[in-house]
Design a protein that fits this description.
Length: about 500
């Protein structure tokens, strides 16, 4: 007689319950020798789970996919997507499974999903597995983004499977457990618009409104308002990325969530030397998803969502296109407002100035950084130091930058004094520590090649407290050598 399934989470699975034909029920592939590599204990507590129970043999078996916890209803979700501009009509969860949903301690509904748990009906020619390095990368970068205050999926656990996966070479396999507000993407809408038609798109849209935008439930134009609300969240999300130098690297429509969270940490990186054309993705050969292109791509993705919603917006196609186009055309204005707010805070500027003049002041600072290949994070933090009465670092950084004294005079004249609250906000907008690429790669290499998790744990501790400068962590605040950065590439991990 089988023992009863362990209860680790209080599952309440609305996607399975409300969207019956939108997925395939599936089970994870068992791992041969699961070993817990990392458990996010504080996140487990948020989800109402007991970290100690998850660290037991039973808990590890559940996190590896070897034994389903009570209440889990694993499914592979269907979605399509525009990948680098080209449409793939069927993608779906090729190496992921949604275990179910929980209501966390703050009353938020959150998905719990596996990544790397084996083949599904959507795997195409893939093995459905994940290597340990990419799983640890997602853990690191998503926790860095969370600590920076940016909406993101998060990693609950990484379990080594004891099985090897074949990429360019044989690598240790792993299962990542990911937590998200949901995994509904623009590509989800594209799949059902392409294969099923308007009524199933309506069903999906109603689900998204109920889950993520309940304030639209009584709207006279709920689907147009949904498009606008998604656009607003994406406009702010991308502005937040730009504020910390984050480059997503693969902004395909299947990686744009309706919830407004950052998802998929494959070919991503934090920019060091300020460069709007910076690209670190090995597959982005033409710079489509470069740092400075991200807001335009978010707008392009929003237009693809709009196309799926047109029959719901208005039965008259001309009126539907006109209404949706107005929302798409408003995106740059909304993004620019968020960008200005974020960069004003980074430079310690209040909202009393003219927007155009402040924009010019910020742009001129970024031009100085770009022309002199200055580190974005260091330069912005040095501005905070100067505003707080410690100008030495800024003076040293800008010593040979032609034109900086004139710019500095404009900056100081714009905001001669700042309140303690303004300085505190400026500090929280300018981290000392980001997940710098050379430290990430060193930590992953130590873990994968030498079974040494100490560098990973050390780096994780640093990036989880990014705003308070600590002398012992000084090395983590310094950029990589140009020899490293000039040839640095990240990969999708599949």
């Amino acid at each position: 007689m089988n023992a009863p399934a362990p209860r680790f989470f209080a599952f309440d699975n609305s996607y399975v319950r409300d969207l019956e034909d939108f997925y395939v029920r599936w089970k994870p592939t068992p791992a041969s020798k699961p070993v817990l590599i990392r458990l996010n204990e504080s996140l487990a507590v948020e989800l109402g789970a007991d970290p100690a129970a998850l660290a037991t043999d039973e808990g590890i078996a559940a996190l590896a996919g070897n034994r389903l916890p009570e209440g889990a209803e694993p499914i592979a979700q269907a979605y399509a997507g525009h990948q680098f501009g080209g449409f793939s009509p069927q993608l779906g969860d090729g190496r992921a499974l949604l275990l179910g949903e929980v209501i966390d301690r703050q009353g938020r509904r959150r998905d719990i999903a596996f990544k790397g748990s084996g083949r599904t009906p959507f795997s195409r020619n893939g093995d459905g597995k994940c290597a340990l390095g990419p799983a640890l990368r997602e853990y690191l970068i998503s926790e860095a983004m969370h600590a920076l205050g940016i909406p993101t999926t998060r990693a609950l656990a990484v379990v080594a499977t004891g099985d090897m996966v074949r990429r360019e070479r044989a690598l240790p396999g792993a299962v990542l457990t990911r937590v998200a507000a949901s995994h509904v993407r623009v590509g989800t809408f594209e799949f059902f618009a392409t294969h099923r038609g308007p009524e199933q798109v309506r069903q999906l849209a109603d689900y998204v409104i109920a889950r993520h935008y309940p304030q639209l439930a009584d709207s006279a134009q709920p689907y147009l308002d949904l498009l606008a609300a998604v656009g607003e969240r994406q406009a702010e999300l991308v502005a937040r990325w730009l504020g910390v130098g984050f480059i997503h690297g693969v902004m395909n429509t299947d990686n744009m969530t309706l919830s407004g969270e950052t998802i998929d940490y494959g070919p991503c990186a934090f920019m060091e030397a300020y460069d709007p054309a910076a690209v670190f993705s090995s597959i982005d050969r033409h710079g489509r998803y470069a740092y400075g292109q991200q807001s335009g791509i978010a707008r392009w993705n929003l237009a693809r969502l709009a196309e799926t919603l047109l029959p719901l917006i208005d039965p008259d196609s001309d009126r539907a296109v006109q209404a949706a186009t107005a929302v798409i055309d408003a995106f740059p204005k909304h993004h620019a407002a968020h960008w200005l707010r974020i960069f004003r805070t980074k430079l310690g500027l209040d909202e009393s100035g003219e927007a155009a003049e402040d924009r010019a002041l910020i742009d001129d600072f970024l031009v100085l950084l770009s022309h002199n290949r200055l580190d974005f994070t260091l330069a912005c933090r040095a501005l905070f130091d100067a505003a707080a009465g410690h100008p030495a670092r800024l003076a040293s950084l800008m010593d040979s930058v032609e034109g900086f004294p004139v710019w500095q005079g404009r900056w100081q004249a714009r905001q001669p004094t700042r309140s303690p609250a303004a300085l505190a906000a400026m500090q929280q907008a300018n981290p000392c520590y980001i997940a710098r690429n050379h430290h990430v790669e060193a930590a992953l290499a130590a873990a994968v090649d030498h079974n040494d998790l100490a560098p990973f744990e050390r780096l994780l501790a640093v990036i989880q407290s990014p705003f308070d400068e600590r002398p012992a962590d000084a090395a983590y605040g310094q950029p990589a050598s140009s020899e490293f950065t000039d040839h640095y590439m990240t990969f999708c991990g599949t």
